[in-house]
Each structure stands twice: as C-alpha cells, then as structure tokens.
Specification:
538 residues; mainly alpha; two-stranded antiparallel sheet; elongated; OBERON
C-alpha cells in the first residue's frame, strides 16, 4: 500500500497535530502533554508523533506566561473584578465537580472569564512550564478519567466551554480549545466517549469502516484511518516512507514505531514462499507480513519527483534505517545506496540528480532480481531449454528496462532542450527589456537635465525678481520718507497760513471795534454839543 492515506477534509485543518493518547493502557509514559519543543528534541526512534503547529495563546496569556503566572488556579485572578468569589471556578472544579453545577455557574460568568479559563488550560497543554504543567495536566486527566458520571446523557447538559475543557483534558489536544475551531456539541460528546475520532481533520465514527479487528474493537478512541497501531498517535504526513501500511488489513504504523518494536525484520520471501529471506513488515493488527522493498520502490516512483531537498534526504534516511539490518543482497545495496546519496547531498549534490539516481537504482535492482532468484534456487539443475527461456526472459526484460531508461533519457533530454530554449527566449526578452530600460533611463536622464535647467532658469528669474522687489521696496521707503517730510512741511505751512489769517481777522476786527468806538465817542460828543446850544438859547 502506498503511504498517502486519507487526506484532510477540504473544510478541515491543513496542519499537523500531536496528541497524548487517551487510553492509559497505551500510554506507558504517563500521558504527558506534548509541546513543540519536546517533539523537536525527541529523536526519530523515540517518537512517532508529529510536531504540533497550533497557534499559541493570545497576547494576554503570553504576557501572563512571561510574568511566570502559569499556575492553574491563577487565571481567574486576572479576569474581570466584578465576578464574585462564589461564582469563580478553576480547571480542577471543572474536572471534579458535577456537570450541572459547573454548567449553571458558567452560564452566569462573562465570556472573558471563560476565555481566560480556556487559555489557562492551553498554556498547560503547551507544556512550556516544565514538570509543573505536566503534573497539573496529569492531575486534571486523572480527575476526569476517574469519574463515572461523565456519560453521553449527562454531557448533553454541559456548557459549551465546559465540554471543550473536558474533551481537551481527556484527549490532551489543545486544538479543541482553539477559538477558530468549532465542533458541534454532539461531536464533542462522541469524541469524549470514544465514538468519534479525536483527529479534528478526520472525525470518522469509530470503529472506522466498521473494522472488527481486536485493536479497533478494544482500543478506546483508535482510528485505523489516521492513527498508528503501535503508538496510537496521528499526523498528516502523506506521500512518505514515514508510514507503513499493511497490504492485507490496511492498518497503518509509523516506521519509527515499527523499527523500535521489532516489527521490521528479516523473513522468508513472500513471492517465493521460501528460499532467500528479505526485509518484511509484520502488522500488529493482523499479524501478517508485507514486503518492504517493493513498497519503498513504489513510494519513490510515485512521490520522489515531487520532493524537495530536505524531504528527499529525510525519506532516504527512513529507507536507510529500514534496511540497516537487512541481510539479503538487494536490501544491503539499497542501504548502501541511501547512505551514499545522503552523504553526497550533504556535500552539495542536487536533489534532482539524487532522485534520478535512486530511481535508476530501483530499476537496476528490478532487472537483477530474476538473476538473484535463479542463483538462489539452491543450485538445482534445470533443463537447458528452461535455462534458455529464463535467459531470454531476462534479456528481454533487460532490453525492455533499457528501452524504458532510453525513453526516460530522451524525455528528459527533450524536456531539458525545451527548458534551454525557454531560457534562451527568456534571456532575449530580458535583453530587450534591459535595452528598453536603458533607453528609458537615458530619456529620463535627459528629462531630469531639462528639468534641472528649467529649475536653474526659474531660480535666476526668481533672484532677479527678488532684486527688483528689494529695489522697489527701497524706492517705496524713500518715497514714503519724502512724502512724510512734505506732509509735515505742508501741515506746518498750513498752520502758519491759518494763524496769519486768524491774525488778519483779529486785526480787522480790532480796527472795526476801534472805528466803532470812535464813532460812538464822536456821536456822544455831538449830542452833548447840541444839548448845550439849546440850553444857551433858552
């Protein structure tokens, strides 16, 4: 079977997950929560779980972690102060208290408080707090798994956040707490009671495909579509030698787990039923064997052309470790070939060349296999006609393989020639583009020079106008001073003229008054003279 298994659903998650098995029997390490750093540090033969790539907690929890406040009973202290102490709950309360009691309290609590409670559990599942977080998680998981009242009927009455926390504690998967992931209440309950796969991207009903084998029947939460038969963990690695599928029962096993548990070993050839031994994989689910060399060849022929450098080196390392203990000639040659290609790639060998080399090696092994089988028949004498027929078959097969290789070489040559022509055309296009860019650059340079000349001309005009403006300003100031002087002189002359006129008027009035007085005096004298004459006559 080829390694591509059930692909993630289009609406599901496109990332890798790691989890802690929820079955105590299958978790000899005490069900420790896996963190990113823990998985990276583990050697390939110690862990078959993939790296967890879920986003970290939000900024509030990140700040809380930096301050060292990772204790499980602390989150409610940093939440809204209006929550009374009687209504506050902790993760341990959720794990041990009755469903109805916690559900009623959660309905009275604000959403901010519940989000903070979930973030606290996410921090614990990330495992950045070391042994303290692991011990707290194990305590919470023991509390949940020891309860007998958590059934499908009772969990229907649970609060949504309460159910997410219980499922996350029971499975050890923090993805159930992620804000962007929303499963139905029914799905969460089925995951908790092991009726649905805990892999969020799988979500198949259990047992998957109604499998009735002992493992699918007796192992809680096991899904044969996405989980390893040995470690009970899942990931989304496809098109890889990381997973080995059984040819008969279609159950899957991590290559690392199979090597560690001795499920990969030498055994009698499946094709011949006896004779020379070869590397075989023994499935733990059905206890039957599958041939490995042909499986590896199929994987590389179907998937290797699409691998990049790092994946190709990783796959070669997987194959090298699979056939490290091989005793048959073909397995030993494959082991040496993988080791040689890994060393060459570390020295700078291009991945396309290494891919062609390993594919060519598989073709050579396939051509040599009839000869090996013929030489391995214990030295039995065969009829000359049979020998000639076998030789003819081998020759025809070799010719066919050589023709296939020649066709592949011709196809690669044509492809390379087309690529070269395309590169030449692209080079010509780039040359034309460079010429156009140079012309455009020259044009822009001339435009810039013209603009600079205009700027200098305008600057000279501005300076000239500024000079004229300064001269006009000075002339205006001179004329203003002259105008002020003339104005002062005019005012002074006007004042003098006015005073002279007033003086003339005063003199005229004085003369007039003087004449009037004289007239009055003469009139009074005349009247006095006439009065004396009258008296004298009398």
């Amino acid at each position: 079977m080829l390694p591509p298994r059930q692909q993630p659903r289009s609406g599901g998650l496109q990332t890798s997950l790691s989890l802690v098995t929820s079955d105590p029997v299958l978790s000899p390490d005490g069900q420790e929560p896996r963190s990113n750093s823990d998985n990276i540090r583990q050697s390939p033969t110690e862990s078959a779980s993939s790296r967890e790539t879920w986003p970290a907690a939000d900024a509030v929890m990140a700040k809380k972690m930096e301050n060292g406040k990772a204790d499980i009973d602390c989150p409610e202290q940093s939440v809204i102060r209006r929550v009374s102490s009687a209504d506050k709950i902790s993760l341990r309360d959720v794990a041990r208290e009755q469903v109805d009691v916690i559900s009623e309290k959660m309905h009275r609590l604000p959403d901010e408080y519940l989000d903070e409670l979930k973030n606290g559990l996410r921090v614990i599942l990330e495992g950045n707090g070391g042994s303290q977080h692991r011990e707290e998680f194990l305590t919470l998981q023991r509390l949940v798994q020891s309860r007998t009242d958590l059934t499908a009927k009772t969990l229907i009455r649970a609060h949504r956040v309460q159910l997410e926390i219980l499922v996350a504690i029971n499975t050890g998967i923090q993805a159930f707490l992620h804000p962007n992931i929303s499963l139905s209440q029914t799905s969460l309950i089925e995951v908790f009671v092991y009726k649905r796969c805990r892999n969020i991207a799988c979500q198949n009903q259990l047992p998957a495909e109604d499998c009735s084998c002992e493992i699918c029947t007796n192992r809680n939460g096991f899904c044969n579509l996405c989980m390893c038969v040995i470690c009970n963990k899942f990931d989304f690695e496809v098109n890889t030698c990381r997973w080995i599928g059984c040819d008969l029962c279609s159950h899957w096993t991590h290559t690392d787990c199979a090597i560690r548990e001795g499920q990969i070993c030498m055994g009698p050839s499946i094709k011949t039923g006896g004779g020379p031994t070869e590397m075989l994989f023994r499935c733990r689910a059905c206890n039957r064997t599958s041939e490995l060399l042909g499986w590896v060849k199929d994987v590389f022929q179907h998937c290797a052309p699409a691998w990049e450098r790092e994946p190709l080196m990783r796959e070669l390392d997987f194959v090298s470790r699979i056939f490290r203990g091989s005793e048959d000639p073909r397995g030993r040659k494959l082991f040496w070939k993988c080791e040689d290609l890994i060393d060459k790639m570390k020295g700078g060998l291009v991945e396309s060349t290494a891919c062609r080399a390993i594919l060519m090696f598989f073709q050579e092994i396939e051509v040599d296999s009839p000869k090996s089988l013929e030489n391995g028949e214990g030295g039995r004498l065969i009829a000359p006609q049979d020998a000639c027929n076998r030789i003819a078959e081998v020759v025809h097969e070799a010719i066919r393989k050589m023709e296939m290789v020649a066709e592949e070489k011709m196809r690669m040559f044509k492809k390379s020639r087309l690529s070269l022509e395309a590169c030449d055309r692209e080079l010509e296009d780039k040359a034309r583009e460079v010429t156009d860019l140079k012309m455009e650059r020259q044009k822009k340079k001339l435009q810039v020079e013209e603009l600079e000349r205009i700027v200098r001309l305008k600057q000279a005009e501005a300076d000239m106008f500024q000079l004229k403006a300064n001269e006009a300003k000075r002339e205006a100031e001179r004329l203003q001073r002259i105008s002020l002087a003339k104005t002062d002189k005019s005012e002074e002359e006007y004042a003098n003229s006015y005073l002279k006129l007033r003086l003339s008027e005063a003199e005229a009035e004085k003369q007039y008054l003087f004449e009037k007085i004289k007239l009055q005096e003469s009139s009074s004298r005349a009247s006095q003279g006439s009065g004396g004459v009258t008296l004298h006559r009398c």
